[in-house]
């Protein structure tokens, strides 16, 4: 395999090194392109062919359906690890020892309060506000209560900022839901594990003892692990690019939350359930909606199907499908919306349109189903995704800063007007 790529423009040849990743992925290093060619750039809307960085965090192979965090397969991590271990692994690169894990857990618990004044900010939002907007705003607001930038070269300062946000984020997430439900704000219970405490903060009633449910906690733990990182997706790229201007960690995360909100990204899990509800309200005719999804004159898309990277199957969807079946069975849940989901998946998986385009149910198709079975309100689904993705965003931000990456600043090809002389308003 050549180590050089040659580009020819108007008879002039330019050579660029080809770099190889540890999984033999190849990339043409075009850092010198503009300088060498006198300003020629590349154009790649949606960055389908553009590598924005070198990263040692997550490996995925969309064709083979492989997803690994720091070398460990998602299947093994989902089965054997818990969310905090995975968070530590993603952020610091190695699975924690028992002592490291104990310290990590303790340090997070130490930071698990949120300034009381944050409640005043939350109070200002209408109850109808979408929890993702509220969460993004509250994450930004945290900066005001934790001023001072983090010296990324100080391991201690970085560690402090990391445990702070891992501790406070679940509180903010739970508060966004409690506000919508008119429940008093709850600080949880530090004697519980991270995920169990999150569940308690979301669901505890003021007049009722909280009862943990192992099935629910295990399912939540797994969901968070499956969402914990996914290399350079839209929200992660956002976190990295915002951080590349040396904006702080919390500010970068807040931007990532906004990016995740969109229905083509993390918002898809909410869109899945809304779509299933709409199909149910319309008589439950799945064939009609499959036909709509295939009709190029109809903007309707089957939410929860297709993926930018996975063109074979989404390994997370495989794990979560099994988990969804277990949770529904164990909790004895029967729900017509879930029957519609199953019907839709069965038809689509055999339909030529979907098979040809390699459109398989993605992780969001099943995660929405489990969240619904666990009693999590639809508008909180993307917040659950954000809770899972938090360690990935942190790991990617930290890596970007430690590698001293330059500010992210893509180029463009200008297609607007050429120079024109200004006309006074009376002449227009
Ligand atoms: N329903 C119907 N047709 C679809 C769907 C769908 N869900 N997804 C893709 N297609 C079709 C497109 O119309 C296109 O058809 P064509 O080749 O005849 O024009 C072809 O499949 C390729 O689609 P693209 O949009 O080019 O694929 P891309 O990789 O850009 O998009 C995406 C991926 C955004 C996920 C897309 O499949 C989609 O919109 N899916 C629904 C939303 C969704 O579930 N998003 C969650 C993604 S997972 C995550 O963020 C965790």
From TrEMBL:
The active site is at 307, 364. The keyword Ribonucleoprotein does not apply. Keywords: Transferase, Tricarboxylic acid cycle. It catalyses: oxaloacetate + acetyl-CoA + H2O = citrate + CoA + H(+). GO terms for biological process: tricarboxylic acid cycle. Pathway: Carbohydrate metabolism; tricarboxylic acid cycle; isocitrate from oxaloacetate: step 1/2. GO terms for molecular function: citrate synthase activity. It comes from the Bacteria. PANTHER family: CITRATE SYNTHASE (PTHR42871:SF1). NCBIfam families: cit_synth_I, PRK05614.1. Belongs to the citrate synthase family. This is Citrate synthase. It comes from Aquimarina spongiae. The lineage of its organism: Bacteria, Pseudomonadati, Bacteroidota, Flavobacteriia, Flavobacteriales.
